[in-house]
Amino acid sequence: MLIRKLLDCPEFVAGDGTQLRELLHPDKQDIALRYSLAHAVVPVGQVSTPHALTTSEVYYILAGQGEMHIDDETNLVQPGDAVYIPPQARQYLRNTGDRPLVFICLVDPAWRQEDETVFDPAD
């Protein structure tokens, strides 16, 4: 049995600027998964850097509120929302609330740095 405690997972700043803790990743644990699972935070007043993955991604919002931007679409997100992000979609998330925007991020197949393109926010 594998149980990963959130606070036992090292926190780091991801390429898109979010605070991230990887919970499950097939390259880091001896587990038979196609996907990776991470806990992410966009601090108050912050926005993640626009980026795209060659893989699909799902965000599940746990706390806070924000604006999800996927290609030319923008929608408000709040706790209980699941957001599907298709492969190659340019995406970013803006915290519009007064507390951290917290979400679970599932990437399938598992996230790899070479699968991600981070864009200049001015573009």
Average pLDDT value? Answer: 95
Oligomer: single chain
Q: State the separation between the terminal residues, measured CA to CA.
A: 45 Å
Q: What is the C-alpha radius of gyration, as a whole number of Å?
A: 14 Å
Instruction: State the share of residues found in helices, binned by percent.
Output: under 10%
Instruction: Kindly name the structural category.
Output: mainly beta
Number of helices, where a helix is a run of at least 4 consecutive DSSP H or I residues: 0
How much beta, percentage-wise? over 45%
What composes the largest sheet?
Answer: 6 strands, antiparallel
Number of strands: 11
Strand order of the largest sheet: 1-2-3-10-5-8
Order of helices and strands: EEEEEEEEEEE
Coarse morphology: globular
- Point out poorly predicted stretches: none
Task: From the structure above, extract its key features.
single chain, 123 residues, mainly beta, 6-stranded antiparallel sheet, 11 strands, globular
What does this entry look like structurally?
The chain is mainly β and 123 residues long. It has no helices and 11 strands. The relative contact order is 0.27.
Structure summarized in a few sentences:
The protein has no helices and eleven strands.
Topology:
Elements: E1 11-13, E2 19-24, E3 36-42, E4 51-53, E5 56-63, E6 66-70, E7 73-77, E8 82-85, E9 91-95, E10 101-108, E11 116-118
Antiparallel strand pairs: 1-2, 2-3, 3-10, 4-11, 5-8, 5-10, 6-7, 6-9
